[in-house]
Amino acid sequence: MTDAPGRALAVGAHPDDIEFGCGATLARWAAAGTEVHLLVLTDGSKGTWDADADLEALARQRRVEQRDAAAALGASSVEFLDLVDGELTAGLAERAAVCKAIRRLRPDTLLGHDPWKRYRIHPDHRRAGELVLDGVVAARDPHFFPERGAPHRPARVLLFEAEVVDHVEDAGPGLDAKLAALLCHRSQWRSTMRITPGGADEEAERTAFSARVRREAASAGAGWGLAAAEAFKRLDP
Ligand SMILES: [Zn+2]
Known about the structure:
Layout (H helix, E strand, L loop, with lengths): L6 E6 L4 H15 L3 E8 L12 H19 L3 E7 L8 H14 L3 E5 L9 H18 L15 E5 L6 E4 L4 H9 L5 H5 L8 H20 L7 E7 L2
Parallel strand pairs: 1-2, 1-4, 2-3, 4-5
Antiparallel strand pairs: 5-7, 6-7
This protein binds zinc ion.
């Protein structure tokens, strides 16, 4: 566990990834005075099982949901790169955009997906992890993208969905905020939370989802002396 950093930047592939990966940690830090910023890489336009959905409307809705979720965590800002959901690439243009965000926001701690998580099938999560690490290398070196701001080297990188866990953060104090933030993503209730909005079982399904998140936090804390935790791979670049 670390002391709350002065500034933190969390980078996620889609709206809701940051909340799932490190929402409780960010909420605890924000409550302790950390300036928390979120960067969401894609527009979330494939985040539905409805084949007839209006995808532009969905992307707009997901922005609103992400802003609400950021507020629930106590974050200071949320920025969207609006790249196409499902088609994220880790090319130079995307790396430059992440580098620019790191140099502008100058986080002490940077959080993102672990690109080395084995057998994860969603390509955006792998690419997002690469972009965080490629972005941090570029951001610290003055010869990368010199037009994108002054170099900045975060003191620490925490990778969520970690293949090898070697670090945890206490999720106890921030768990309610994490759940509240996750539930802001109403368009994802069916597909990722198994909740049917307005359905007869909505209340029971919400309870089951909360129990699942609490169970995962308890399991992450087991062995680390914490009742609830979020698990990470830690890098000190
Ligand atoms: Zn995702």
